[in-house]
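Input structure tokens:
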């Protein structure tokens, strides 16, 4: 919850009482739906109350009825109340405080293989695709899942919820319609790195490649996908470096063996 600034405006016969100046960022703040305000009418305790602005931007007050508030500054709203209460009170003196600004933005963490990761503020009711677009979309290194972690609400028992979406399906018309959920304050969006393997040395296109777990990939096919051997390659000298737990080993390549995640295929240069 933001620390609500307090702007006191006392009005007597249309003249403002002196009040402490608010912070510069709050001087232009406009009231909005669900803001909690306190209205004090001097020597009129029956008219003094705390009230939350309705979703339609109005408040309903004794004597004056429904009054628009959203879109007005605190000062403008207080002056409007003084004008309205002059029909019923001889010398209305009114003080308005903002007790709580309704948060109209939400805070979302975006982590992993996206254009820009970090902790961001987005407009309420932003969808998953809205947010991914605003952080630069998915990186090529991203895996096939987009995960949303949603914490339990404050004061409520229960565990965090987890939603997992197929990254490719999310961008289809069906995905936009059925998977593009509206995010909530406190959600975390995660795009894990894809399983990948690496090919270095004498191939046409060395680099990192995604490893599709659904399609078996042999060492030979991986080399073909990298453009094949260059004319300098030592085909008999191909090695595979593989990590298994804390252990790392380098072995002579078996062209029919399956490539595993994080394998490094090294194709050396032939000197003959």
């Amino acid at each position: 919850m933001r620390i609500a600034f307090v702007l006191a405006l006392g009005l007597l016969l249309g003249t403002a009482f002196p009040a402490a100046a608010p912070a510069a960022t709050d001087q232009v703040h406009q009231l909005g739906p669900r803001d909690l305000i306190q209205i004090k009418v001097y020597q009129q305790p029956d008219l003094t109350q705390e009230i939350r602005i309705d979703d339609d931007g109005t408040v309903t007050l004794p004597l004056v009825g429904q009054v628009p508030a959203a879109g007005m500054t605190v000062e403008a709203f207080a002056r409007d109340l003084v004008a309205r209460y002059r029909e019923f009170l001889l010398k209305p003196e009114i003080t308005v405080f903002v007790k709580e600004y309704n948060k109209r933005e939400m805070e979302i963490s975006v982590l992993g293989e996206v254009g820009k990761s970090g902790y961001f503020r987005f407009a309420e009711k932003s969808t998953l695709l809205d947010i991914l677009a605003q952080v630069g979309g998915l990186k090529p290194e991203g895996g096939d899942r987009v995960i949303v972690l949603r914490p339990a609400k404050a004061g409520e028992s229960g565990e965090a919820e987890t939603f997992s979406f197929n990254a490719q399906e999310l961008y289809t018309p069906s995905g936009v319609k059925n998977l593009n959920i509206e995010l909530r304050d406190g959600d975390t969006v995660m795009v894990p790195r894809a399983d990948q393997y690496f090919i270095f040395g004498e191939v046409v296109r060395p680099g990192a490649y995604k490893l599709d777990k659904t399609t078996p990939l042999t060492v030979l096919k991986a080399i073909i996908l990298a453009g094949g051997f260059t004319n300098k390659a030592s085909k008999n000298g191909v090695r595979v470096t593989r990590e298994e737990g804390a252990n790392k080993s380098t072995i002579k390549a078996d062209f029919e063996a399956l490539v595993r995640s994080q394998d490094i295929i090294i194709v050396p240069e032939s000197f003959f």
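Residues 196-267 form a domain with the Outer membrane lipoprotein wza fold like fold (CATH 3.10.560.10). The CA atoms of residues 235 and 267 lie 7 Å apart.
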